[in-house]
């Protein structure tokens, strides 16, 4: 090991775990990261990074000496005291979080009072209390992650805030966790465990609410002749509102917002409280994902036999994550209407092959657009803005119709080139 900095244990080397491990290594800590999958540990040990996250491969390779990957929990317990739990907590059918992987970790840790679990995984409010009852000796600190896919390294190094929650008997561990983040420039919020857990869920639910809100403003703006981009600009300059997360589009996806909104609604429901606002946030989002269908029908009439190109499969750019991605919902819906769907994504299409059913997966945007009756921009990958719309694309398409699901393309230029352009809320 060799440095004086606190060694860090990371349990579960998915996207959160690997970003956390690599960033702590970058800050000078020795990190022992443990995953149960031997193949994953072997490939990580060779320096291979199995997900698309800008800057992550460089960080892993630059800090290779400080990063150890293992399948052996005893090794982690032996070499580190702060154990960052980064296993996933996917949604169950009912919308609750599945805690089986967290439980398995807790079962392996025993009751040593030299160790603390530092919970990064997103868990229901009350999980910390439950674990502390089960393992009274073990320290427990809640330290939710606020990383965004595609900018995780920057988010880690320049946090808006770091939340560290602990109850009385774990205050000393919480001090050690807070100290890890002191070199960074964000404020550290010290609080109790349940409040820390709630900060995480409430933050994601609030951002999701902001998106569903602006999407509804967009839908109404379309009817009333306002332009949602202008409306968002005007609203966002109010300090109390802020300009971020006011981008209207085809709904939010990903592994976090849909899951965390449902989980919070479900948690509230378990206490007998009906969280009505979140029910609407979810419903609005589900409808928004299909909104491009109506826009296509407006220009094409029946979609039976029509060739539709979907540009983008990832739930947002700079990631290969397709969880809850709009493209999946849209492709299925369009096929249900009898359309032939072709998709292209620079990194995410292959992983979606199984879920995309009868959809044709193309190797390039040009291939997807060849002979298309209409194109739908689903994910705002920069390369889609750089296409030669007026020349090459127009020449390829059977009909020059574009539904810009993220208000991302140059509307004026497309119209000038003779395209029928439909944005969201404009
Ligand atoms: C989100 C949160 O932003 C992170 O703070 C949090 O740590 C993370 O979940 C998590 O809980 O792990 P992420 O899912 O990576 O991060 O993605 P976002 O960039 O937040 O985008 C979520 C979705 O909202 C995307 O589908 C995006 O297209 C959509 N979105 C975002 C909009 O439709 N409009 C906007 O203005 C912003």
Give the helices and strands, then pairings.
Elements: E1 8-11, H1 15-26, E2 31-34, H2 38-45, H3 56-62, E3 67-70, H4 73-79, E4 82-85, H5 100-109, E5 116-119, H6 127-134, E6 139-142, H7 152-157, E7 162-165, H8 171-181, E8 188-191, H9 193-224, H10 228-236, H11 257-270, H12 276-289, H13 291-300, E9 307-311, H14 326-336, E10 340-344, E11 360-361, H15 365-369, E12 374-377, H16 382-385, H17 389-396, E13 401-404, H18 411-416, E14 420-422
Parallel strand pairs: 1-2, 1-4, 2-3, 4-5, 5-6, 7-8, 9-10, 9-12, 10-11, 12-13, 13-14
Please describe what this structure looks like.
The chain is of the alpha/beta class and 426 residues long. It folds into three domains: 3-191, Rossmann fold; 201-286, N-(1-d-carboxylethyl)-l-norvaline Dehydrogenase, domain 2, CATH 1.10.1040.10; 289-422, Rossmann fold. The chain is built from 18 helices and 14 strands. The strands form three sheets. The chain has a six-stranded parallel beta sheet with strand order 3-2-1-4-5-6, with helices on both faces. It has a six-stranded parallel beta sheet with strand order 11-10-9-12-13-14. The chain has a two-stranded parallel ribbon with strand order 7-8. The N and C termini lie far apart (58 Å). The structure holds uridine-5'-diphosphate-glucuronic acid. The site of uridine-5'-diphosphate-glucuronic acid has 20 residues, from helix 9.
């Amino acid at each position: 090991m060799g440095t004086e900095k606190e060694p860090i244990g990371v349990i579960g080397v998915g996207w959160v775990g690997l970003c956390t491990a690599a960033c702590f290594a970058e800050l000078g800590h020795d990190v022992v990261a443990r995953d149960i999958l031997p193949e994953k540990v072997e490939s990580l040990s060779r320096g291979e990074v199995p997900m698309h996250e800008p800057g992550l491969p460089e960080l892993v390779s630059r800090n290779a000496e400080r990063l150890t990957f293992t399948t052996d929990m005893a090794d982690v317990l032996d070499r580190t005291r702060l154990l960052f739990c980064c296993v996933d907590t996917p949604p169950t059918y009912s919308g609750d979080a599945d805690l089986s992987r967290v439980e398995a970790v807790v079962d392996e840790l025993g009751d040593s009072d030299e160790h603390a679990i530092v919970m990064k995984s997103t868990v229901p409010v009350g999980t910390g209390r439950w674990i502390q009852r089960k393992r009274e000796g073990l320290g427990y600190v809640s330290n939710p992650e606020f990383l965004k896919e595609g900018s995780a390294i920057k988010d880690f190094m320049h946090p808006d805030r770091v939340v560290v929650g602990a109850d009385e008997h774990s205050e000393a561990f919480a001090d050690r966790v807070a100290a890890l983040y002191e070199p960074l420039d964000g404020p550290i919020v010290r609080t109790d465990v349940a409040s820390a857990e709630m900060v995480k869920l409430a933050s994601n639910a609030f951002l999701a609410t902001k998106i569903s809100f602006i999407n509804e403003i967009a839908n109404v703006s379309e009817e009333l002749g306002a332009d949602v981009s202008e409306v968002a600009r005007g609203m966002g300059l109010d300090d109390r509102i802020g300009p971020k997360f006011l981008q209207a589009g085809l709904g939010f996806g990903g592994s976090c917002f849909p899951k965390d909104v449902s989980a919070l609604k479900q948690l509230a429901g378990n206490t007998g409280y009906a969280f009505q606002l979140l029910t609407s946030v979810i419903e609005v989002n589900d409808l928004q994902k299909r909104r491009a269908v109506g826009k296509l029908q407006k220009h094409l009439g029946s979609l039976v036999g029509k060739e539709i190109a979907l540009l983008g499969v990832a739930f947002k750019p700079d990631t290969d994550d397709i969880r809850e991605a709009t493209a999946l919902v849209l492709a299925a819906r369009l096929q249900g209407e009898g359309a032939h769907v072709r998709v292209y994504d620079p990194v995410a299409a292959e992983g979606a092959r199984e879920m995309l059913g009868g959809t044709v997966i193309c190797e390039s945007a040009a291939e997807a657009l060849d002979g298309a009756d209409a194109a739908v921009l689903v994910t705002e990958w920069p390369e889609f803005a750089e296409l030669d719309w007026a020349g090459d694309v127009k020449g390829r398409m059977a009909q020059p119709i574009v539904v810009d699901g993220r208000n991302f393309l140059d509307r004026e230029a497309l119209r000038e080139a003779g395209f029928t352009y439909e944005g969201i809320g404009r």
